[in-house]
Every structure is written in C-alpha cells, then in structure tokens.
What does this fold into?
Amino acid sequence: MSSFKRWLPACCIMLFMLMLPNVILAAPASSPARSTTRPIQVNIDGAFISADRSPFILAGRTMIPIRTLASLGLHYSWDGIRHTVTITNSSNDQFEMTQRQSIAYKNGVPLQMDSEANNYNGRLMVPAKFISEAFGYSVYYEKIREIIFIQSKNFTPDTQAIHSADLKQARLAAISLPVRYSFKPGASVQSDHSQYYSYSFASKDATRYAYSNGEITTVVEITGTTATAIWQASEADIPGYPATTFGGVQPAYISDLFQDSFSYDNGVYSGYQRLSDGTVATFKFPGLSYTELIRAIPE
It folds into this structure.
C-alpha cells in the first residue's frame, strides 16, 4: 500500500495535515483537565446542537450541561436550597438528583447513578448516558470524532436527506450518522485529541467520506441509514514505509474521496475543491459551529 498522502497534490497535503436560563449553583468545581480544548460535540436525533458549556469526560463518563436536556424535550427546575434538580418529560415522569449525591430518584424510586451531578464553573453537568437512558433514549459516544449521539426510541434518520441534490444538506446528514466499525479499532487510535480535523468527499457524493485528525484517516461508507468505518490508517509519510492499517481494507476508490474537503484547524475553517483540470481551488471561511464546517463549494 502506497503512502496515504501521495494521492494528494501539494496544496491539498498542506490542508490535509494542518487541516434554558443559566443555573447559579453553590460551590463550583473546576473542569477536569483534558489534553485538548477541542469541544465534544452533541448530536440529538440527527442534529448537532450548541451547548453553553462543552461536554467533557470524567472518570470514563461523559458529562453534559443540563441545559442540553431541553433538546431532548425534557424540562428541569432547580431548587437552590436543596441543591436539587427535577427533570420532567412529556409523560410527567420525574427524575430528581441532588448535586454531589450518587443516588437519584425516578418517580420516587431510588437509583444508583454511575456519576454524580456537579457544578463546574457555574454550570450543572450531569452524566449523559445515565440521564438519557433513564428517559428511554439511547446514547452512543463515538470516540474517533468525539461526538455524543443521543437518539429517541422513535427516531429514524432521513435517508432522503443523504441523497439530496443539495450536497451541503446531504453531507451534513451523512456526518450526522454515528459511525460503527466493520472491524475492531485499536484503543490507541479511537480518541481524537487533535485541534485539527477534516472531512473529504467524492465529487457530488455524500455516501462515502474520509475523516482525518491529521494523523489517522477513517474511511466511512453509508448504506441506507448506517455509516460504517471500512478502513482506518495512519498518515505517516516516511520514505520507504507504507501507511499503517489499523483495521479494515483500503478501498479501491480511495483517491476519489479527495475532490471536496473541509477542515478545521485551531479555529480556522478551510476547504478545497479539485477542479476538472486537476488544479485545486482553496478557500477559507468563518465558522461558528460544527455544522458550518460543511459548506457549499463557492461558485
């Protein structure tokens, strides 16, 4: 297998590698230390949402701001005297938890939580998986892209959106699908702490893409409403050494995936388009959210 970056022209290589009211709480805690300031993204029922406080991992548990629960159709109220929050769904089920206590109550029945709610820099953070599943939602944390996917029982991804003539809409729908693996990925390559990442697509196609964190590339194929990682490899370009495959098989169409690419690098959003004559047009743009990474190609 030849080196991964030899498929790209020089300018592409450069981009490819570079590439609810607030609750006031008592006794705030500092955020746990992370090796990166890159925020974990939250996707609820196929849509990326903005949060007033970035989620983080604490002792293996993903903590999300309680305000995020509004996107699940849940409501909450805060008792400042008892330091207790009450969460209610549309069926009037009630979930009550007290700051720094590991015992919660659902409709009055005590439950042992796997991580307690706490105040971090003025925001109440709660364990995403425990709270979501308590109300019947499924939770999946995709480590390679650092995205929390929360889905309701009746949620079905929109297959028409993935095949939309509007490429931006189609590609946004594609990256909003949680990626599963056709192979067992190595633990060392799943967690992405890079401040760089990119999505690269085949021309006029949203059903397959390559995701890169500047060191590792994952190729994803979409069939129906399922996104599957079919190949994952390093991007090392040491003369005489091939790229290292971590799992799966390199697809024959790999060179086709780098026609349109969109990247984020320490706050700078960029993109490139390979033109029909083989030249590459590059552009930069302001971005405010994860979904704004995927743009329409400039006319």
User: Anything to note?
Assistant: Residues 1-28, 30-36 have pLDDT under 50 and may be disordered. The CA atoms of residues 96 and 105 lie 5 Å apart.
